[in-house]
Every structure is written in structure tokens, then in C-alpha cells.
Amino acid sequence: MALALSLGRRGQGTCWPNPAVGCVIVRDGRIVGRGWTQPGGRPHAEPQALAQAGDAARGATVYVTLEPCAHHGKTPPCAEALIAAGVARVVAAIEDSDPRVAGQGFAMLREAGIEVVTGVLAEQAALDLAGFFLKTEQGRPFVTLKLASSFDGRIATATGHSQWITGPKARRAVHAMRARHDAVMVGAGTARADDPSLTVRDIGVDAQPVRIVVSRHLDIPLLGQLARTAAEVPVWLCHGPSPDAERARAWEGLGAQLLPCALDDHQIDAADLLQQLGKAGLTRVFCEGGAALAASLLAADLVDELVGFTAGLAIGAEGLSAIGTLGLAKLDNAPRFELIEAQVIGPDVMHRWARALR
Fold first, then answer.
1. Backbone phi, psi, residue 84, to 5°
2. d(C-alpha 180, C-alpha 284), whole Å
3. Percentage of the residues of the chain whose pLDDT score is greater than 90
4. Among residues 46, 67, 95, 305, which one is catalytic?
5. Would you call 260 exposed, middle or buried from its count of C-beta atoms within 10 A (0-12, 13-18, 19+)?
6. DSSP string, 291-336
7. Of 79, 42, 80, whose CA–CA distance to 64 is shortest?
8. For residues 174 and 200, what is the distance between their CA atoms, to the nearest angstrom?
9. Which of 187, 232, 281, 295 has its CB 3.0 to 4.6 Å from that of 324, i.e. a possible disulfide?
10. pLDDT at 356
């Protein structure tokens, strides 16, 4: 199952809106088939592994990280494929909460005389598939908030200069994190100040995440890197209900997709923003700020994971804060996270924090 989970993680960032599932088929103590959800969500992990196993699948044990699907979509149910292949036993990490499945895949297998074992490494599977479960159950994607800051929590000098606070090894690690998410998201202020490309670079990965900018008025440069590459790598612009019509037409002409969102106190409503992204199929979003967007997500309790890169330099109180105003009067009301990982990356420190999801 540990191998199946590692295979499933290969699909993170490329197989949305489907879950990133891994599958391993074992017969007589030998692995005869392996598979994971492919880009675009198809084929699923089980048919891939079955195709590799061939006749050796008959009488074999199948280890799969999520309950095999039981419904007819664009492909036949994976539960039916396992039954047709004549497998003897299915070991699954966790049940699928999608109402179209929700135990029906296990029931189909048992009715066909296949032994079913569940709950193996379920906690790790729940973490790996958290985005899929959140989209299914709450209609929103899993959100990772990444901030690179100085020792005193600043992301830029008072003049806005921010390149580079952290070193090249930390930036390379960020590219790897981007690659494991469906989308990279920033606020309009970051898009204007940094003119970012928001792509995955220098790690040998071809697939690119969707690039999202949250901008109430669509006031983002039409000559920047995002605009120049919108036809090549997807750009989604999340805007308010009354964007500038001329700018909207210009961005659509460049190939960007526009997603209208509701407002909350004259700003994009964070909860509705994530609902719109969930409706569009996203399961995992990597938010890289800026300060106002980070604060709005934290205030709405919509951040599932924090990733901080802290550099050994001080900028001072006049620098730009990593997180905007939260309006807290008491520490009891502050969002808290549990440290799950810390490591030195080059001259910087990476620390990752999470909260319970299920």
C-alpha cells in the first residue's frame, strides 16, 4: 500500500478533477502490475495496473489507495474491470466519499465473491486525497498557503523590492511544490508588483498548473508575463461582479478564463472564490500571496496547509508584511496550525504546518 500511495502522488497536480490514485497488483509475492491516475484523470489507476498485469491478475491481490469507482462516467467502473480480471482480493486504503461511489464499489466486489479489506494506511491516504475529498464534500479545493519571508516576517522592502529573499535551493523546492498542485494563485497586487510567470521551471516537469490571479477589477498588466503566455499556459482571473468590460474582453482575447466571484466588504469573498475554483474542477491550489489574499483566506479559515520559507535577513518594520490585517484582538482567535515538518534548504529554513481536515 505504501508503494501504491507513492504512485498515486505522481498524479497530483495533473489528474484533476479526478483523485490521484495509485494501484499495485501482487500475485504469488511478486508485483505484476502498477498504475496511477494519468494526466487529465484518465485512464484510472486500476485499468492501468490491470493492463500491465494481463493474465497474471487472475487470482491476484490488488492494493489501491481509494475505493474503486462504481459508476459509469467517461470510462466504465473500475470495480467492474477488477471483477472481469478475476482478482481474488482487493485491499483499499479508504472509502470514496463521492455519492456516486460511497461504498458501492466495495459492495460490487464483495457480491462478485472478491475479498475486500479496507483501512490500510487510511490516514496517509486521507492526507494525499484531501483535495479530492474537500471538493466532493465541501465544494472547494485544498489550499496550501506558501510565504517566503525575512526573519522578521517581511516579504519586501518598503519600495517593494523582493527578489530574492530566499536562495535558489528554496526557489527550486517551491517549483516542485507548484508541480504537485492543480493551480498556483496570487493576488492582483503580487501580479502587478512582481510580474510573475507562476510556471514550474528547472525541475524537468512539462505539465504546468493553472495560473490564477484574484483581481476584483481585473487591473492586471496586459503586457506582463501572464498576458504574454495566456494562450500557452492557462490563466484564470477571479474577479468581482462588475469588472471593467474592456479589460475583460482583452483578457479573454488573450486566452484567459474569467471566473466571476461574489464580494465581501468590497473585496473578493474568499469562500465564494474557492467554491468557484471547486466548480471548475480544482482539487489542490498553491497560494503564493500576497498579504491581502493570504489574510482573507486565513480569516475565513480556508487554509489547510502553511508552508513558510524563512531567510536569515531582517528588513524592518517599514517592509511589507507577509500577511495583511486580520483584525485580531485576542490570541485565542488567531488561526493555529500544527508543525509537521521543518528542514534546512540551502541558507533558508522551510517549515510546513497543517490542521486536521477529516
1. -65, -30
2. 8
3. 82
4. 46
5. middle
6. HHHHHHHHHTT---EEEEEE-S----TTSEESS-----SSGGGS--
7. 79
8. 9
9. 295
10. 52
Cβ count within 10 A of residue 100: 14
Whole-Å CA distances, 49 to 24, 78, 144, 333: 7, 11, 31, 48
- Chain centroid to Cα 125, Å, comes to 15
C-alpha cell recorded at residue 80: 467492474
Q: Which of 105-109, 145-149, 241-245 has the lowest mean pLDDT?
A: 241-245
Identify whether 137 is a catalytic site residue.
Answer: no
Element (H, E) at 194: helix 188-194
C-alpha cell belonging to residue 317: 518594520
DSSP assignments along 123-177, one per residue = HHHHHHTHHHHHHHHHSS-EEEEEEEE-TTSEEE-TT---TTSS-HHHHHHHHHH
DSSP assigned state of 349: E
Question: Do residues 286 and 258 touch, judged by C-beta distance below 8 A?
Answer: no
Q: What is 87-135 written as a DSSP string?
A: -SEEEESS---STTTTTHHHHHHHHTT-EEEE-TTHHHHHHHTHHHHHH
| pTM for the predicted model, two decimal places | 0.93
Residues 155, 347: Cα–Cα separation, whole Å: 17
Tell me the per-residue pLDDT of 154-176, one tens digit each, with 9 for 90 and over.
988 888 887 889 999 999 999 99
* DSSP code for 58: T
Cell reading at 197:
510567470
Cell digits of residue 134: 474537500
**What is the overall mean pLDDT for the chain?**
93
Tally of residues, the chain:
358
Q: Which amino acid is at 227?
A: A
CB atoms < 10 A from the CB of 138, how many?
A: 14
Q: What is the pLDDT of residue 358?
A: 38
* In contact, 337 and 308? CB cutoff 8 Å: no
